[in-house]
Write a structure and sequence with these properties.
Elements lengths: L7 H10 L3 E5 L3 H14 L3 E6 H7 L2 H14 L6 E8 L1 H10 L3 E4 L6 H16 L4 E6 L4 E3 L2 E3 L6 H8 L5 E4 L17 H10 L4 E3 L7 H10 L1 E6 L1 H16 L11 H4 L1 H18 L6
Parallel strand pairs: 1-2, 1-10, 2-3, 3-4, 4-5, 5-8, 8-9, 9-10
Antiparallel strand pairs: 6-7
Helix pairs in contact: 2-4, 2-12, 5-6, 10-12
Bound molecules: glyceraldehyde-3-phosphate and zinc ion (ZN).
Zinc ion binds next to loops.
GO molecular function: fructose-bisphosphate aldolase activity; zinc ion binding
Enzyme class: lyase
EC number: 4.1.2.13
Length: about 290
């Protein structure tokens, strides 16, 4: 039996309850442990996701799933954990369905819409037959993440309706959000479009590029229907800053400070703190 839960009940409850649940990208063992630790200590559900690039970096999809699964066992994790593929292409989504992920994103934003629709429908069919949740995307997220480049095209309400009608479990929509750090001249989220989409469909909505969006914009978006907030860069920046501080303070040169178990500890703790802070912003309620 799988140790993972799918996202349906968790994200539907979030949409109805006007809060969100964090979707945090893992990049390695330290990231995995830090995300799980933060979720357990806050007693909240969590979604751990891996991009195609990060899975390749770590090995493959099966390895990532095993890593999360085994860390849950040794860490005695009792909160619900969703194991999700982030921005998957058609092949990756199929592979993760086979590998036992409890949720997959099929990102067809760069395909002609008809093809995005067709392939999303196929993935929904394969995934739902196994009780796996599916995230799809309309419009696109600006910027670049692990080789996935988007122009930041606003999601069309009509397309959102058509893709939601396929029975997708959550829907990522481009509303001016960007992967990676936001530029100085960023104009903010397009709340009008978000409202139109939220009025048109009940599907839980996903905010990609969650790092660097001001807290009040995130809170406003959640009130309107965003139920899943994706975070990667924020943890990378926190990890890098804490590691830099450790090295600049010369701690790697004191005693056995060069031991990776010591060298990577401040960065790992910084991820735990960041994830906990974001969970607070999202208003994720504790597991009963
Ligand atoms: O899919 C992952 C995210 O959208 C993460 O975006 O790195 O800007 O937080 P971010
Ligand atoms: Zn994303």
């Amino acid at each position: 039996m799988s140790v993972f839960v799918n996202g349906n009940a968790i994200f539907n409850a979030a949409r109805q309850g006007h809060y969100a649940v964090g979707a945090f990208n893992t990049n390695n063992l330290e990231w995995t442990r830090a995300i799980l630790k933060a979720a357990q200590e806050t007693n909240t559900p969590v979604l751990i996701q891996v991009s195609m690039g990060a899975a390749k970096y770590m090995g493959d999809y099966k390895l990532v799933k095993k890593l999360v699964e085994e860390e849950m066992r040794v860490m005695n994790i009792t909160v619900p954990v969703i194991m999700h593929l982030d921005h998957g292409n058609y092949e990756a989504a199929k592979e993760c369905i086979e590998a036992g992920y409890s949720s997959v994103m099929f990102d067809g934003h760069d395909l002609p819409f008809e093809e995005n629709l067709e392939k999303t429908a196929e993935i929904v069919k394969l995934a739902h037959a196994k009780g796996i949740s599916v995230e799809a995307e309309v419009g696109s997220i600006g910027g670049e993440e692990d080789g996935i480049v988007g122009e930041g095209e606003l999601a069309s309400v009509e397309e959102a309706k058509q893709i939601a009608a396929l029975g997708v479990d959550y829907l990522a929509c481009g509303i001016g959000n960007i992967h990676g750090p936001y530029p100085e001249n960023w104009k903010g989220l397009h709340f009008d479009r978000l409202q139109e989409i939220a009025d048109a469909i009940d599907t839980p909505l996903v905010l990609h590029g969650g790092s660097g969006i001001p807290q009040e914009q995130i809170e406003k978006a959640i009130k309107m229907g965003i139920s899943k907030v994706n975070i990667n860069t924020e943890n990378q920046l926190a990890f890098a800053a804490a590691t830099r501080k450790y090295i600049e303070a010369g701690k790697d040169q004191e005693g056995k400070g060069y031991d990776p178990r010591k060298l990577l500890a401040p960065g790992s703790e910084a991820i735990v703190d960041t994830v906990k802070e974001i969970i607070g912003w999202l208003g994720t309620p504790e597991v009963k």
